[in-house]
Specification:
259 residues; mainly alpha; 2 domains; 10 helices; 68% helix; globular
Length: 259
């Protein structure tokens, strides 16, 4: 995560900007989840069973919050104190747990792998960053267990004081299945897509915004457990959507650009 030459200052400032932005995003998301913003602004909408964040979408909110975790770890190599790191990780891990997105599973695995690699084989600054990333991932995992319990107690107390009841069941990530049938069905459709489409479609895609058409037109997947059409206007896997809409060339371009 250390950057040689003149780019280091640029990456440092970029990480600070990302950190401050995601920190504000996390706080706003929590205020929305607990109804504080709605109360003062007279808004009617609520998050429901999962924290949806300022984006109003749990998966996108989860990805944004992980940018904050990574930015904190990056700044650990530039003198950010351990106390501030822990405070930031806690602020990010709480909404991550309340969003209950299964994206946390691959993100945690990537953070552990990258953090462990940097901690063992990196330079002095990279070891600090790797150690910080490992701590951040560990705190997110701990938060997945503790935060829903504490949060549910707070919400129950608030509802009891206001003589209100929830019209929804709050969800914990630990209570959700790792995968579900619609996602597996969509993945099987994409696998069949490779065998049935022309090479030009595979290389250049179906066209921007056409994932919904692809999902509707693709053959229904019939297996022992997964029998539904599972038609979605968008994919819950960003990279599979890029592959379908922009093709293999578009997917490679996005991977190279974001790496």
């Amino acid at each position: 995560m250390s950057v040689p030459g003149g780019r280091e200052d640029y990456c440092l400032e970029l990480s600070k900007a990302a950190l401050y932005g995601v920190l504000a995003f996390a706080i706003i998301s929590l205020l929305l989840y607990y109804g504080i913003v709605q109360r003062f602004l007279g808004l009617e909408f609520a998050d429901g069973s999962r924290l949806r964040g300022a984006w109003r979408q749990p998966n996108l909110t989860t990805t944004t919050l992980w940018f904050g975790v990574v930015a904190t770890a990056f700044l650990a190599g530039s003198g950010l104190s351990k106390k501030k790191q822990l405070m930031l990780f806690v602020v990010f891990s709480v909404p991550l747990a309340l969003a209950a997105s299964r994206l946390n599973y691959p993100y945690i695995c990537l953070a552990l792998l990258l953090g462990g690699f940097m901690f063992r084989l990196g330079t002095e600054n990279q070891r600090k960053q790797g150690h910080s990333l490992l701590i951040g991932a560990a705190l997110v995992m701990i938060s997945m267990v503790i935060t829903p319990i504490i949060s549910n107690s707070l919400i129950d107390y608030k509802n009891a004081a206001a003589s209100q009841t929830d019209s929804y069941d709050r969800v914990s990530l630990l209570e959700r299945e790792v995968v579900d049938s619609p996602r597996i069905s969509e993945s099987l459709k994409i696998y069949n897509h490779l065998k049935s489409r022309k090479i030009s479609h595979i290389m250049f895609g179906e066209g921007v915004g056409r994932y919904g058409f692809f999902s509707f037109e693709a053959p229904v997947i019939h297996t022992e457990y997964f029998k539904e059409q599972s038609t979605w206007l968008h994919s819950h896997n960003l990279y599979s959507m890029i592959f379908v809409e922009l093709g293999l060339i578009g997917l490679v371009f996005v991977l190279v650009a974001t790496s």
